[in-house]
Input
Amino acid sequence: MALSAGSFYRTDAGSNGGGLENAVPGEVDLGGYEPTSRPLWVEAFFPVDWLALHLSPVYYGFGIPHGNGEPVVVVPGFLGDDKYLTELYLWLRRIGYKPYFSGIGRNVDCPEILTQRLCMTIHQAYEDTGKPVTIVGHSLGGMLARGAAHRTSNIVNHVITMGSPFQGVQAHPMVLSVANFVRSNIVGERKRRREVTSKCFTPQCSCEFVATMRDGEPKDDFDRHAIYSTYDGVVDWRVCIEEEEALNHRVSATHIGMAFSPDVYRKLGNLIAGISEA
Output
């Protein structure tokens, strides 16, 4: 199950979106988080997205532009690994692209470490094909995609996020609680092995991932688009959109279901091909 990026930072209560500038380290309590009002139970309908995909002509490549071997790297969300994106991976291959799994392992580790692994995959994709790389990231995977793209902007031409809260931290309280529990275990284990410092997993961390997220508006070294859903039961869709309206693309899907939704796949097919009005 892929969840959101709300695990890593806690924002001051009452802020307008929770940028990393105002974040402070959080543990299991939710005191400073900004919980979304969407009911989490809507995520139980994600199998409907999967079924709709298999019944849609989009699944078989009809009615969308096809690729010509261009590389596309897919990145899973928090708690997930590459396996749950297999449907998307196979679909991209079916419509003419050369897809790559992220190679980051399970998305529960330090985002800086995961970003470094993702950069290795991006370089491999470029070396294999000789063509600029597109990165598609789901949830926290979208934030990793943006961070990695900044480091490899000379070989990345496009980043597409799906339900990625890059504008702040607003997620369902239960999701935040689970995320904090997982994160605290990782921090504790890494500290015992002296692999992290007291500032790791906080906005005061000096790693490049946090610096990129703190910078806010990304540089235009690559194209970017954001896919979001107002039916998202995990994160607030308002923190998943770009300030420039033309870069945002609304779909009808659950947060988890974005990995399987025919509406999302249709958008992706057009966006990867360079058709922004998807």
Q: What stands out?
A: The two ends are 27 Å apart (CA to CA).
